[in-house]
Automatic annotation (TrEMBL):
It is a multi-pass membrane protein. It comes from Allosaccharopolyspora coralli. NDH-1 shuttles electrons from NADH, via FMN and iron-sulfur (Fe-S) centers, to quinones in the respiratory chain. The immediate electron acceptor for the enzyme in this species is believed to be ubiquinone. Couples the redox reaction to proton translocation (for every two electrons transferred, four hydrogen ions are translocated across the cytoplasmic membrane), and thus conserves the redox energy in a proton gradient. This subunit may bind ubiquinone. Keywords: Cell membrane, Membrane, NAD, Oxidoreductase, Quinone, Translocase, Transmembrane, Transmembrane helix, Ubiquinone. This is NADH-quinone oxidoreductase subunit H. Residues 381-443 are annotated as: Disordered. GO terms for cellular component: plasma membrane. Belongs to the complex I subunit 1 family. PANTHER family: NADH DEHYDROGENASE SUBUNIT 1, NADH-UBIQUINONE OXIDOREDUCTASE CHAIN 1.
């Protein structure tokens, strides 16, 4: 049992309730601030002001939008399965809140005279709790698409299920090297293991894989494919409105905060102060309430990256996205895990030091990037004029589908005896009168 677990075991009931309410309030406030910051940052990227009317700097705009959303009409489709339709957003939002309970925000603080840690619970399998919550959350998305009774939400939910499962595997593989070097799956134990150095420098590939997987796991741009408006109208929540839609919206942003906090815990030392503040005094900046500040700053930096990606990168094609997960991240992660095991064994046997391994690994990465840059780009051969287009393996329309020319317009031609604008009537073969067509140049 870790020191944090021993400290949390003595928490009274009233302190546990304060922590529960505090975590809920923290996540809701972070959601409102993240939405506001996202709109402001993307507005600055696109040379427009963003929200600036409600409150100072428009900070109350998210609160106003949330209140307006709560009072909108709640419409349920006629073909929807009533109870599953109502339960689905709750299933999506609840695991997102529960996952944050194992995140350590500060080591040892005093609340109303009671010494405790800023963490709700410290479990020996804390990382598995986060993965389990992510797995349960996707059920809400799938059930929402199925219960809506409409084909477009169903398509969005199926795409989301495939996406989340794919990137959960990559995310789980990125945990293995961290667990191997920390020697525990406890989140507080992982933070303690980074006292001599953060894991993002020691395990850079695991950090990159997790950073990509957390964007795909939260369905954020450029991986927001389950709700691709150009293909699926609005995704799995097309038929939702009012508070039920707000729960899906809340779950997405809470998941962003949770995966950002988990990235901070796993790779950026958690609540530990950055260098050189970590060397000041008798570990002064890693005691009291200072660690909460470092934790929040690191988490906010990851949230800024989410916003940055949304304002910068276009949405990927779905097959490219799935290929990235299954054909790149998963196999390369397995190779990295084997390399990490070998390096860990060498360090344990004192054959080489950790610093030597970091220098060797950095040199190998630089060499790989250099060699990749030297490889010439091979352009595909130009297709022959008579050969049909293949589209690179994807269906394309046949070449004989050309847009037909519009038929000549019919207009009235005036006769010399008739009034201007009157049609000249000519006898047809069957005795009927026909209207003479004017040349196209006269139209």
């Amino acid at each position: 049992m870790t020191e944090t677990a021993t400290l949390l075991a003595d928490d009274p009931i009233w302190l546990i309730l304060i922590k529960v309410v505090g975590i809920f309030a923290f996540l809701v406030v972070m959601t409102l601030l993240t939405i506001w910051a996202e709109r402001r940052v993307i507005g600055r990227m696109q040379h427009r002001p963003g929200p600036n009317r409600a409150g100072p700097f428009g900070v109350l705009q998210s609160l106003a939008d949330g209140l307006k959303l709560a009072f909108k009409e709640d419409i349920r489709p006629l073909l929807a399965d009533k109870w599953v339709y109502i339960l689905a957003p709750v299933i999506s939002a609840t695991p997102a809140l529960v996952a944050f309970s194992v995140i350590p925000m500060a080591p040892r603080v005093t609340i109303f005279g009671e010494e405790t840690a800023l963490q709700l619970v410290d479990l020996p399998v804390g990382l598995l709790v986060v993965l389990a919550c992510a797995s349960v959350g996707v059920y809400g998305i799938v059930l929402a698409g199925w219960a809506s009774g409409s084909p477009y939400p169903l398509l969005g939910s199926l795409r989301s299920a495939a996406q989340v499962i794919s990137y959960e595997i990559a995310m789980g593989l990125s945990f293995i090297a961290v667990i191997l070097y920390a020697g525990t799956m406890s989140t507080s134990g992982i933070v303690d293991a980074q006292a001599q150095g953060w894991f993002f420098a020691l395990l850079p590939f695991s950090f990159v894989v997790y950073a990509i997987a957390m964007v795909g796991e939260t369905n954020r741009a450029p991986f927001d494919l389950p709700e691709a408006e150009s293909e699926l109208v609005g995704g799995f929540h097309t038929e939702y409105s009012s508070l039920k839609f707000a729960l899906f919206f809340l779950a997405e942003y809470i998941n962003m905060v949770t995966v950002s906090a988990l990235a901070t815990t796993l790779f950026l030392g958690g609540w530990r102060a950055p260098w050189p503040l970590s060397t000041v005094g008798d570990d002064y900046f890693n005691t009291g309430w200072w660690p909460l500040l470092w934790f929040l700053l690191k988490t906010l930096s990851f949230l800024f990256v989410f916003v940055w990606l949304r304002g910068t990168l276009p949405r990927m094609r779905y097959d490219q996205f799935m290929n990235l997960g299954w054909k790149v991240l998963v196999p390369v992660s397995l190779l990295w895990i084997m390399a990490a095991i070998v390096l860990r064994g060498l360090v344990t046997s004192e054959t080489v030091s950790t610093a030597q391994i970091m220098w060797i690994g950095g040199g190998a990465v630089v060499l790989l990037v250099f060699l990749t840059a030297l490889i010439p780009d091979k352009k595909p051969p130009e297709p022959e004029a008579t050969a049909p287009l293949s589209g690179g393996g994807y269906p394309v329309p046949p070449l004989d589908l050309e847009v037909p020319q519009s038929p000549p317009r019919r207009t009235a031609v005036a006769t010399s005896a008739g009034a201007t604008g009157a049609a000249s009537e000519l006898p047809g073969d069957d005795g009927d009168t026909t209207t003479q067509e004017a040349p196209r140049g006269d139209v």
